[in-house]
Amino acid sequence: MLGGYIAYQAILNHDPLAGMIAVFFLFQALTNTGCCGSGTCAVPLSEQKNKDTTEVEFEEIKSEVLPKQ
Hints:
This protein is mainly α. The protein has a domain at about 1-30. It has helices at about 1-15, 15-30. The longest helix is centred in the middle third of the chain and has 16 residues, at about 15-30. The chain is elongated, with a radius of gyration of 29 Å. The protein starts with a helix and ends in a 38-residue tail after the last helix.
């Protein structure tokens, strides 16, 4: 959508730089690529699946309330 709009404006204004930007966006849309096709945009999977989880015990600490002076 954005690539088409930029291409339309590039043709109307006779702007070659906007035309190149439009071609770049349209290429990404048509080939379904992003981040220049490097494949580095994926979030790495968590290593937590293979780790053994253990229960954690908590100890409640109570303190005395000091009287107001």
